[in-house]
Structure formats: C-alpha cells, structure tokens
C-alpha cells in the first residue's frame, strides 16, 4: 500500500519538471556517457580485430619460429593440413644509400604473400610485380618515412647487407602490419630469395620465421592448434590463428580501455558528489511539503519511498541521456577515429559496453542518493517547520549506512569483473575514497582556520566577510572543495604520472644509455669490430656479449605456465648469453658462479627479480628451446639485472660449454660522444654490412611517442572528470545564490557598497578554490607517486609546472562559477528581500 501511495506522490512531484535537477542530470549523464563512449570504442576495435583477424595475421593461422626456418617435418605437417603455405622472415637491418643509413624492419616474403588481403602501394601495382626483377636488381617497397629519410626516389637503389635493391613503390598499406607488434624502424618488403648471399639470414642471426596457412573451410582451429602443440611442443613453434590475429594490439586495447573506464569511474564519483548535493538541496527546498505530509499522518517509509521513486526516475533519465550520448559520440566521430587508428574498427552500437555503463550509473545514483534521502526519515515535522531542515541527525540510520557500504562493495566487484583488473580497480577505488576523505577533512579544516583568523582581518571588511562566510554554518566549503577537489585530484595525478614518464625518458636515460646497439655481429667479425672501436678516441665504453634467444618451455619438468603463470618472460623468446667469468658490472645476489673450466651439465644464472616472480628457486631446472633444440639447465645463482640503463641485460646466462657450439651472433653496446655517432655508424656499416645498428635515442623517441598517445588518452578522461567537477561547482554556486542574495541585502542595508560585496564574494571563491587546488595537488602528488613507484616502477619527482597549473585552475574555476551567480544578488533591492523574510 505504501508503495502505491508513494508512487502517486512521486508522480505529482514530477509534474514540477526538472527545476533543481539540471546539474543532477548533467553530472550523471556525463559520467555515464564517458564510460559508454570508451566502452563503445573498445568494442568497435575488438570487433574490427575479430572481423579482420585473418587479414591482420596474414592467413587463417600462423606458425612462428625463432631464429630458424621450419624443418622438413614441420613443413610436411603444414602442407598436409593447409591448402597453401606462405613463408615470411622478419628481422631488423640497415638500409644504406651512399652515406645515409636508416634502421628498418625487413619483411622477406615469398611469391604467395599475402595469402589474405592486399598490399597498398603507390603507385598502385601488384606486389608480385613490385618485388620482381627491375633492370637486373630485385625490387623492393618501403614506407614513405624511410624513403624520405634516405633521400630516395622511385627507381633509386639502396642496400640491405651486401645486396642492392631497386625501390619500385611506396608501401602505403600493409595488411598484416598491425599483427607484427612494435617495430623500431619503418618497413621494407623484399623477396626472401633476393637476400641469398646478403649475410642477413645466416645461421645465428636474429630473425623470426612465420608460416601463414590458408586452411580448408570449416577447419577445426582448436583441434589443429592442439595437434600442432603436441607435435612440436619441444621445437619452440608457436601457433596463432585468425580468431586473435593481433594479440598484442588486442591486449593493449583491452588494458587501455579498462584503465580509461576506471578514469571514467573517477568522473562518476565526482558526478556523484554533485548528485548528492543536488538531492540534498532539493530536499531542503521540499521541507514544507515533507512537513505537511508528516502532519497529515504520512509514515517515514512513505516519505522516503516518494522521493526515492522520484529521484530514481530522474536517475534513469540521466543514465538514458548518458547512454545515448556515449553511443552516439563514437558513431559521429567514427571517420576521425578510424583515420587515426592503425588497426580496423567496426563502429556500431554494442549492447555490452552500454549495459556496463548503465550498471555503473545505477550504482552511482544509488550510492550517492541513499544517504541524503535516508535523512528525511529522521527529521520531525515540527523541526522542519522551524528551521527548514537544518536540524536532525547528521548520520542516517544504521541500515542505510550498511546498505551504502554494500552498494560500494558491489560496485567494486562489478568494476573488477568488467575491467578484468582487480588490482587496478582496488587501487583506483582506494585513491578515490582516500581523496574524498582527505577533501572532507580539508574542508572542515578550512572552516576551522577561517573562523580562527577572521578576527585578524579587522579593517579589511571584504576579507572578513569572506572568512566569516566560509566558517559559517552553510556547507559551501564542503561542496566546493569536494566537487572541484576530486576532479583536480584526478587531473593532478595524471599530470604527475605523465610528467614523470616523459622525464624518465628525456632526463634519465640519455645520461646512462649507450649510443648504439649493434646486433648480428658474427663471431669471426668480433676481433676486427673491437679493434676499430678500441682505436676510436670518441668511444668511452664497449660492452659485448654472445647472443642467443630461446623460449622457456618447462620449469622443473612441468609446463612453464603452470609454475610461472602468465609472466612476461614466458611471452615469446628471451635473450640468453654465456660467459666464463662473472661480468664486471654484474652483482651476484645468491648462489655461486661456475668455475672457468666447468664442463658439466648445463647451469644457468637467472635474473633475481624475475626468478622470484616466477617462483624459481636455486636448484630448479629450466628448459629453454633454442633453435628447435631443448636445453635443460639447473639454476645455480641469481644476479641483479637492471634493464633501466638501456644497456645489455639478459634474463639468463649459461656456462659456455652449454651453448658455445650453437650457431649464434654477438650483441654490443657502444658509448660514444654525440658528434661522433654518425661517423662511427658509417664506418662500421661500411666494413660490416650485415651488422644492424639501433640508435638508442631513436628507440627512446618511438617509446616516447607511444607514451604521449597514452597520456593524451588518459588526459581526455581526466578532463571529462574535471568538467563534471565544474558542473558540480556550478550547481553548488547556484544552490547558494539565495543565501548570497540575503547576505548582500543585509550588507547593503548596513552601508556596504556593491564593490566591497563583490570583492568579498571573489575572495571567498578564490580562497576556497585555492584550498581545493592545494588539497587536490597533495592528493595528486601522492597518487602520482604511488602509480610511478609501485605500478610503473620509475623514479619520481614532483612536476611543479603541472602543480602550479592545478592550483591556479582551482582558483579560476571557483571564481568563475561563484561570480557568475553573484551579479543577481547585487542587483536585487534589499527592501524587497528583507520584506520577504519572516
């Protein structure tokens, strides 16, 4: 019965329209829209990857090998199960034109390439024709950025190793490019047969071979994958198929999307503050209605249900608006987004992200409206008539506190499930809750300090009025600090993280990093290579080591994934070296190094940090597949490996007798003065054309560009959070307009000028904005430090330029919103206001 009566009352209340709920709807809609838009873009990319999976992979399935080509047995299995097989070799090299040199990622293909999709060339011509013989020399295509860097024109000649090629076209679209992962250089495509004798695909050089399969229709991919794993489990062969054509891209998109959704949740939390404030303000304006209902015998439950239903309907309206915006925005911006994405995306309306956004919106509305709604039960009618709802219990009944806590726990559980990152979700939630608590405490501290220092402002009327207003009984300080502070906290944290990431790249690495990595140095080339560099005065240091790569397949005789889970060391092949003595720059943390003349069973020294994460202990055995052969070694020691210096670092180092007989090359780092780098590169690449040089500065720039894109994406999410906070701030200012009107009327009656009153309003806004900015800055610095230290594992220092911007932004935003609602109180005649007061 009470529900029916409450529904009737709520329906009548809703006839009044949306007055007082515009900010409520805007906050909720904006937060839901941000989450829905991020989810829609992510779903669109995932759908595009699924639809174009085979094209991105280059075939229905792919078998990949590390630093070797397939054996006869492996080729026979492929031929038996596939209608067609295409072989591709992928490696880094140096493209040379006269004295110009450029690092490039070479794809050496056969005449079947590509099995699926088409290569886009400029001028437009078939890839087979472009790679065929051109005036005696084999043809090649390359990306425009490398063509321009080398100063090449169509028809020009360049070298890869010792082999010359003629450029026939610019590579515009590589159908399987996104599936190849991160490359350090622009792409060149040539025929593999044209590289015979070039010295680039010799035994021991660093390359990967990929075999793309065109399978019969209705092939059972699961069965074929299992059969391949069983047949070649010990050969290091890895299977992929069109269902996940670009796993690295898919994982990246998934993680970035999850992170952005969590940033969006921060925006919803800010919006929730506005929702709570709007509900509280609305209910204060309904005290006479509530009092009348209580006087006529309405039960507490009926009153609660009346406004719960009313606000619930409005919440659903706000969520619906947010879902419509979140679904429409990606569709409207689809051409722009597609143009910027290097991967396919199928933009459409996807139910799953919209459902998730709706769930987030519902829980946010419930969490932030239950508290103010519940207080209506505890206020007596007589009290409401006397002081317009200022009295009553500050805290709601225990059952509502428990219900709010349960809703928060349920929201965290759902966010963990939806995002798939429990750790990051809990960190984000902890940060938001910590920031809210800090901001509430700071708001009360601001009021306390304002009350204490107000007497010292004698003679400065405007300042004293401002301090008195801040320390007064109204909740303006709490509303402003909460609404603006949380948005600024998110933005401050993002700014500090972004600044420290950029600083780590631009500041830390160049002071310790080598000038070049040289790879694919053959063993018989090492004496001449070292002699050339040792006689170079500009070279301050040379580090060299033998280089093999292998895949960890087993730990203690069991599949490695059973022991180490999905640790990054198991994702693909890893560098392995060997040495007789413990290198000078290496520190042994546990165990013992082998004797110089040791010739027993293989031993391995493992990186200590990674070993701990992978549950590897001294005496354990690790099986590594190198060039199709298994090497099982006993862990004899753990050593410290610092990958942050950009120098040579290996997860595994074995005793020489275990690996020295396997085909391999050497890797070397060279530390030289900047002005000598070009000359050293030119001399070495001329003398040793097969050697590939990777300039560390260029690699850092590629990483920096990726990080810049990440930072931009996260900043957009933080900006949405800040916009929500500004809307909440406007709502708080609008809600306080009536109080400021009465205040201005009193002051003008006592002789104050409009200018002094306006100055008082401006000082009040500036003080609150500055305090909100300062508190947000503290929370942002703390959050940035936590993320940089524990998640990014980078050094941290405060970026003061970002910090100053946050504080100034807080002052400016508060003044703009406060002064926007200050003009009307100054223009109203005091007599009109005072007569209307009882």
TrEMBL record:
Recorded topology in the membrane: Multi-pass membrane protein
Residue ranges crossing the lipid bilayer per the database entry: 256-283, 304-337, 357-376, 397-418, 424-450, 761-787, 799-823
Predominant location category: membrane
Keyword Repeat in annotation: no
Keyword GTP-binding: no
Keywords: Cell membrane, Membrane, Transmembrane, Transmembrane helix
Residue ranges constituting the ABC3 transporter permease C-terminal domain according to the UniProt record: 263-375, 719-827
Gene Ontology cellular-component annotations: plasma membrane
Protein name: FtsX-like permease family protein
UniProt source species: Planktotalea frisia
């Amino acid at each position: 019965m009470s529900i029916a009566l409450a529904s009737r009352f709520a329906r009548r209340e809703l006839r009044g329209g949306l007055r007082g709920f515009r900010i409520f709807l805007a906050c909720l809609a904006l937060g839901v829209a941000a989450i829905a838009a991020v989810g829609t873009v992510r779903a669109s990319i995932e759908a595009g990857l699924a639809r174009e999976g085979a094209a991105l992979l280059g075939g229905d399935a792919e078998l990949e090998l590390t630093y070797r080509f397939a054996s006869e047995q492996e080729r026979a299995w492929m031929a038996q199960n596939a209608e067609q097989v295409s072989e591709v070799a992928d490696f880094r090299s140096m493209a040379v034109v006269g004295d110009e040199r450029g690092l490039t990622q070479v794809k050496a293909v056969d005449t079947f390439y590509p099995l699926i999709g088409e290569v886009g060339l400029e001028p437009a011509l078939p890839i087979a024709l472009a790679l065929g013989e051109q005036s005696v020399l084999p043809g090649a295509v390359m990306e425009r950025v490398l063509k321009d860097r080398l100063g090449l024109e169509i028809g020009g000649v360049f070298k890869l190793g010792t082999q010359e090629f003629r450029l026939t076209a610019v590579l515009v679209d590589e159908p399987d490019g996104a599936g190849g992962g991160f490359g350090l250089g622009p792409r060149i495509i040539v025929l593999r047969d044209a590289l015979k004798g070039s010295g680039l695909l010799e035994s021991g050089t660093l390359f990967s071979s990929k075999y793309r399969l065109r399978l019969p229709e209705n092939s059972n991919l699961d069965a074929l994958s299992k059969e391949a794993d069983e047949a070649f489990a010990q050969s290091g062969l890895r299977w992929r198929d069109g269902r996940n054509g670009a796993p690295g891209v898919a994982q990246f998109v998934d993680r970035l999307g999850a992170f952005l959704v969590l940033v969006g949740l921060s925006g919803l939390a800010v919006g929730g503050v506005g929702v709570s404030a709007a509900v509280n303000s609305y209910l204060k304006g309904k005290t006479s209605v509530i009092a009348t209902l209580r006087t006529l015998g309405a039960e507490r439950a009926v009153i609660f249900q009346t406004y719960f239903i009313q606000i619930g309907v409005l919440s659903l309206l706000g969520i619906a608006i947010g879902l419509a915006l979140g679904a429409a925005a990606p569709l409207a911006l689809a051409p722009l987004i597609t143009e910027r994405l290097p991967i396919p995306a199928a933009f459409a309306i996807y139910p799953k992200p919209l459902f998730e956004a709706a769930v987030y919106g519902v829980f946010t509305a419930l969490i932030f409206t239950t508290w103010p709604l519940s207080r209506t039960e505890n206020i007596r009618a007589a009290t409401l008539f006397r002081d317009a709802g200022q009295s009553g219990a500050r805290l709601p009944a225990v059952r509502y506190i428990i219900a709010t806590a349960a809703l928060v726990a349920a929201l965290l559980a759902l966010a963990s499930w939806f995002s798939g990152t429990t750790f990051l979700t809990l960190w984000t939630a902890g940060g938001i809750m910590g920031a809210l608590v800090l901001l509430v405490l700071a708001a009360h501290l601001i009021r306390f300090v304002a009350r204490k220092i107000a007497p010292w402002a004698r003679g400065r009327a405007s300042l004293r009025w401002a301090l008195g207003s801040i320390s007064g009984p109204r909740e303006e300080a709490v509303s402003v600090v909460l609404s603006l502070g949380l948005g600024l906290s998110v933005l401050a944290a993002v700014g500090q993280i972004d600044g420290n990431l950029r600083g780590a790249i631009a500041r830390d690495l160049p002071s310790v990093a080598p000038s070049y990595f040289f790879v694919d140095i053959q063993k018989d080339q090492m004496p001449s290579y070292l002699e050339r560099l040792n006689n170079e005065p500009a070279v301050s240091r040379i580090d060299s080591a033998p280089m093999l790569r292998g895949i960890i397949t087993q730990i203690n005789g069991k599949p490695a994934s059973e022991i180490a889970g999905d640790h990054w060391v198991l994702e693909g092949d890893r560098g392995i070296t060997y040495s007789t003595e413990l290198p000078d720059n290496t520190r042994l943390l546990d165990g013992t190094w082998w004797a110089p003349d040791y010739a027993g069973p293989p031993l391995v020294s493992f990186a200590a940090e990674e070993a701990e994460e992978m549950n590897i202990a001294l005496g354990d055995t690790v099986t590594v597949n190198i060039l199709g052969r298994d090497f099982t070694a006993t862990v004899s020691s753990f050593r410290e490996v610092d990958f942050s210096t950009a120098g040579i670092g290996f997860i595994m180092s074995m005793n020489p007798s275990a690996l020295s007989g396997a085909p391999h090359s050497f890797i070397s780092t060279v530390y030289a003065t900047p002005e000598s780098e070009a000359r050293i590169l030119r001399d070495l690449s001329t003398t040793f054309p097969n050697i590939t040089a990777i300039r560390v500065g260029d690699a850092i720039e590629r990483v920096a560009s990726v990080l810049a894109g990440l930072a931009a994406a996260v900043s957009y999410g933080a900006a949405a959070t800040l916009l929500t906070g500004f809307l909440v701030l406007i709502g708080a200012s609008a809600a306080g307009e009536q109080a400021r009107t009465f205040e201005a009327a009193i002051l003008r009656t006592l002789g104050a000028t409009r200018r002094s009153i306006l100055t008082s309003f401006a000082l009040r806004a500036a003080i609150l904005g500055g305090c909100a900015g300062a508190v947000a800055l503290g929370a942002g610095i703390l959050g940035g430090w936590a993320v940089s230290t524990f998640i990014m594992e980078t050094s941290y220092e405060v970026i003061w330029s970002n910090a100053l911007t946050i504080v100034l932004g807080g002052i400016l935003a508060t003044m703009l919103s406060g002064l926007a609602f200050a003009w009307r109180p100054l223009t109203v005649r005091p007599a009109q206001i005072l007569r209307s007061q009882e």
